[in-house]
Amino acid sequence: MNAYSAIFYLLAVIITVATALTITSRNLVYAVVYLIISFLGTALLFYLLGAPMLAALEAIIYAGAIMVLFLIIIMLMQIDKQEGVASLFNQCFFVIAVAGTAFSLVLLLLYGNSGSFFPLQAAMATPGQFGAFIFQKYWLAVEVVSFLLLVALVGALYLSRTNSEKSAYGGKR
Questions:
Q1: Is the confidence at residue 1, as pLDDT, over 80?
Q2: How is domain 3-124 classified at the CATH fold level?
Q3: Among 23, 74, 147, 173, which residue has the fewest nearby CB atoms (within 10 Å)?
Q4: pLDDT tens-digit profile of 99-134?
Q5: 46-50 LR contacts (CB < 8 Å, sep 24+)
């Protein structure tokens, strides 16, 4: 097993564990943080497989913009739930461990000795070519995903309103 294979399997474990923790986490903010770790691991996986443009898009769009939007929506919902210090320490320790591992993998990929590994075949495409491919061949899927994100945003904003706001607009109390 070479270094690329080891990094691939380590990233796969990080992505799987972070996604499982996203699904099972009771705290919504922690769930979003775990999902960000999963998205960043996916971006690293794309970079490892020779798609730096896709890795940058994954990190910027998903881990950056969409997850910040989700955090804002969660904070607008104003869920007041106190957790103990021990539970907070356990979750923070795990997040720091996974983030440290991912950061060390990034450093290894960027500054590692590339002469000792087998060279990857790079699939290069300009952003214009990538955009033309996505919007010519998969335009319907892009529109469906954007509509689903809009519905999720409207639903989260509806759920975040207080009872007095709902009753003012004719909603149930």
A1: no
A2: Four Helix Bundle (Hemerythrin (Met), subunit A) (1.20.120)
A3: 173
A4: 888 888 777 776 766 555 555 555 677 778 878 888
A5: 47/109, 48/4, 48/7, 48/8, 48/11, 48/109, 49/120, 50/120, 50/121, 50/122, 50/123
The three-class DSSP label of residue 4 is helix
d(Cα 22, Cα 31) in Å, to the nearest integer?
Answer: 4
Measured between alpha carbons, how far is residue 171 from residues 30, 152, 158, 163 in Å?
30, 19, 10, 8
Pair 14, 102: CB distance under 8 Å: yes
3-state secondary structure labels for all residues of 124-142: CCCHHHHHHHHHHHCHHHH
pTM of the model: 0.51
Burial of 112 (0-12, 13-18, 19+ CB in 10 A): middle
Cβ-contact 130, 142 below 8 angstroms: no
Instruction: Give the DSSP per-residue string, 27-72.
Output: SHHHHHHHHHHHHHHHHHHHHHTT-HHHHHHIIIIIIIIIHHHHHH
CA nearest neighbour of 41 among 90, 97, 81, 101: 101
Cβ atoms within 10 Å of 156's Cβ, excluding its own: 16
Q: DSSP code of 118?
A: P
Per the CB < 8 A criterion, the answer to whether 16 and 39 are in contact is: no
CA distance 40 to 168: 42
